[in-house]
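Q: Structure tokens for this one, please.
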Amino acid sequence: MRDLPPTATLRAFEVATRHTTFTSASQELHVTQSAVSHQLKHLEDLWGLQLFQRGKSLQLTPAGAALAPIVREFFMNLDATLTDLREQKGRVRLKVSTTYSFALKWLLPRLPGLSQQHPQILITLETSDKAIMFSSTDSDVAIRLGNGHYPALHSEFMLREQIFPVASPDLLKRFGTPHEPAELLRYPLLTRDGADLVPKWEAWFEHVGVGVSPFQESVRFADTNITIEAALLGQGIALARSGHVEAEINDGSLIRLFDVPFASPVAYYFVCPKGIETQPHIVSFRNWLMVQATQAQQQYR
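A: Here is the predicted structure, written as tokens:
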């Protein structure tokens, strides 16, 4: 840009926009009052704009008011980026793509443990429910729910969840605790809309030997997290994957109904482009991830 002034001049302008006199601005900048006045006059001459109304106090002109937030944002972004880069010094960034619900409910609570074990790895999370296409994303690795068919990618089995009904203590207080799976048919059952990857009540009832005709739905949800939230609010019983309700079961806000093993027909897989799976930081993340997955799976066998 032809009209780009020295950074010190821009800084003088940014500081002056937050003060009412040249004197107070000069005190923040640790320079003389005349130096601030000279820098601002130089900026006005360079841009051909009057930026301040001079008088008993400094007041921005319309041009100065329009430019002030732009200059202020520049310095804020510069400071934030420099701070981030200094903190990252000696660390390697790893961008991980996974589904929003899995990131929120399973991966995010475990990330502090990764930071303690491998402080050199800086994780960036990207969430998407779409099939991973590494050619059109800057993600390094991904965790996906499916059948394990990922042609042209390096993939490893990670975790298969258990599926079971969950209810809030409040709902059980109002309706009573069911003692047999068939009794659930008289409860409000929360259903999750979506593809074949979504747990289905019909499949669970068939697994426990209960024949069902179309049952009364209270509400059908398009999102796993909203379904779990509805269960927490006592609106009905949800059919949940174990990895999505760990915290709620541990703190008692949701109760697992019936200790009947029912493995999800789909599983989570660790995937990445072939050839990068041997990079040291990816090996470290993958090994940590597999340990966490094994522990989680053993909890619900």
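A few notes: The chain has a mean pLDDT of 89. The two ends are 64 Å apart (CA to CA).
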